[in-house]
C-alpha cells in the first residue's frame, strides 16, 4: 500500500479521471477527499469508497471554496494534507478559437488555470510547515485547445 495513511485531495473527483484517481488512491491506503462542484456525484463516489473517503462540494474557481476544502480535509483527517491532485477541468465545444467568446474563455481559464493558483496559495503554506507534500496538476489536450487553437483553425493570408 504505497499511500498508506496519506491524506489526499482530488478535485474533479465525482467522475472521470478524478474518480479513478480517488479510487486508486484509496485502494493504495490513502484517506481521500473527493472534491467536486457536483455534490451528489462526490457523495456517491465517497460513499462507494467507504470510511477512508470524504466528499466536499467545491467550486475550484472560488478561493473561499478552496480554503473551505483545505479546512474540511484537515478537520476530518488530523491536520495533514500529503497530496493534492488538481484534476478539475473543463473545455468548450470544439470549434475554432475565433468562435470562442470571452465568457467561455474566462470559464476555461478559471477552472483549468486559476484554480491551481488558488490551491497553491491555500496548500503550500501547510506543506512548508509539514516540510513535505506533493501537488499534481492534471491537464489535457482538449483543455489546451483554447490557447493553441482547435483543430480546423486555419489562418489565411489576407488578399
Record the SSE blueprint.
Elements: E1 7-11, H1 16-27, E2 31-36, H2 39-49, E3 53-57, H3 63-77, E4 83-86, H4 102-130, E5 134-137, H5 141-148
Helix pairs in contact: 3-4
Can you walk me through this structure?
With 159 residues, the protein is an alpha/beta fold. The chain has 5 helices and 5 strands; from the N terminus they run βαβαβαβαβα. The protein has a 5-stranded parallel beta sheet, sandwiched between helices. α3 packs parallel to α4 (102-130). The longest helix has 29 residues, at 102-130.
Give the rounded overall mean pLDDT.
Answer: 89
**Which band does the percent of strand residues land in?**
15-25%
Overall geometry comes to globular
Instruction: Measure the end-to-end span.
Output: 64 Å
Q: Provide the structure class.
A: alpha/beta
Task: List the strand order in the largest sheet.
Answer: 3-2-1-4-5
Give helix and strand order, one letter per element, not per position. EHEHEHEHEH
The parts where pLDDT drops under 50 for at least 5 residues are: 148-159
Largest sheet: 5 strands, parallel
Radius of gyration, in Å, reads 17 Å
Can you give the helix content as a percent range?
40-55%
User: Total number of helical segments?
Assistant: 5
| Tally of strands | 5
Amino acid at each position: 500500500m504505497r499511500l498508506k495513511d496519506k491524506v489526499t485531495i482530488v478535485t474533479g473527483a465525482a467522475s472521470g479521471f478524478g474518480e479513478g484517481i480517488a479510487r486508486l488512491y484509496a485502494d493504495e491506503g490513502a484517506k481521500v477527499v473527493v472534491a467536486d462542484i457536483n455534490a451528489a456525484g462526490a457523495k456517491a463516489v465517497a460513499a462507494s469508497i467507504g470510511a477512508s473517503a470524504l466528499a466536499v462540494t467545491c467550486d475550484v474557481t472560488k478561493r473561499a471554496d478552496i480554503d473551505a476544502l483545505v479546512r474540511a480535509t484537515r478537520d476530518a483527517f488530523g491536520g495533514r494534507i500529503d497530496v493534492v491532485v488538481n484534476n478539475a477541468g473543463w473545455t468548450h465545444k470544439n470549434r475554432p478559437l475565433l468562435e470562442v467568446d470571452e465568457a467561455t474563455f474566462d470559464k476555461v481559464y478559471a477552472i483549468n488555470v486559476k484554480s491551481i493558483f488558488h490551491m497553491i496559495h491555500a496548500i503550500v503554506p501547510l506543506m512548508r510547515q509539514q516540510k513535505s507534500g506533493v501537488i499534481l496538476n492534471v491537464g489535457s489536450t482538449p483543455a489546451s485547445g483554447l490557447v493553441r487553437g482547435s483543430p480546423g483553425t486555419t489562418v489565411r493570408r489576407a488578399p
